[in-house]
Amino acid sequence: MSKKDSETKEFHAEVRQLLDIVIHSLYTDREIFIRELISNASDALEKLRMTQLTENKVFEGDLPIEVNITTDETAKTITIADYGIGMTRDELSENLGTIAHSGTKAFLEKSKDGAKPDVIGQFGVGFYSAYMVAERVEVYTRSWQEEGEHLRWESDGASGYTIDEVEGQKRGSRVVVHLKEEHEEFAKTERVRGIVERYSNFVGFPVHLNGERVNTVDALWLRSKKEITEEQYKEFYQFTA
Questions:
Q1: What is the rounded CA–CA span in Å between residue 216 and residue 213?
Q2: For the segment 113-167, what is each residue's pLDDT rounded down to a tens digit?
Q3: Radius of gyration of the chain (CA)
Q4: Quick one: pLDDT at residue 1?
Q5: 220: which DSSP letter?
Q6: Which residues contact 224 (CB under 8 A, 6 or more apart)?
């Protein structure tokens, strides 16, 4: 593989600082990383939907607009994938590494005041919550653009990350979380199902877990009051609280 195809970069200083906080956090509700990765996948699908309104050519334009989660207890992994907008090589670096977004700084400021990691998504840097449970993380991605590359980003959350070319990645992004031994529970189907139902039940796109649909997509505010049960109201308000 040529130097052009594979590159290793250092994390921006503030990203390293953020990762250090997340990795060494004593926060117990580490399950929120699943919520954050699903939220990112949903955002990518929404961006694709908007792009399709203005662009005639979208790579693999007939792929389903959905989030797919797979667990593997043997490999000790959980994978969250979308057929969304995907990322270019530059976007991988910008979004996951070298450039400190304003959200990174804002989260670091809040952390000084004792903010818990569960608020990380409010600052647009929820991806890094995966490192509360991860030994390392891989992101496979392919941009919506016709000339896009098939890429893999990989990091153990230490000093930096590697980007290289891979074959066969469909449009969108696939995040593979390699779990630490003490967090292998997140490779169990039923454990993950409960988390999705608790945090991501009203995500605006279908969410599948190991091939089975697990979320409620219907927007309650678009339905007649007569069609909505009291239990659905309770579930929705619990989700948005």
A1: 9
A2: 776 667 676 766 789 999 999 999 999 999 999 988 999 999 999 879 999 999 9
A3: 18
A4: 43
A5: G
A6: none
Six token digits for residue 185: 């529970």
Q: Is residue 214 part of a domain?
A: yes
Q: Which domain covers residue 195, as residue numbers?
A: 8-240
End-to-end Cα spacing for the chain: 49
3 within a domain of the structure (yes/no) = no
- Number of structural domains found in the chain: 1
Q: Is the pLDDT of residue 191 over 60?
A: yes
Total number of residues shown for the chain: 241
Q: Is residue 2 part of a domain?
A: no
What are the residues whose beta carbons fall under 8 Å from the beta carbon of 77, sequence distance 6 or more?
71, 176, 177, 178, 179, 187
Read off the pLDDT of residues 55-101 as tens digits, 9 standing for 90 and up: 989 999 999 999 999 999 999 999 999 999 999 999 998 888 865 56
Q: Is residue 1 part of a domain?
A: no
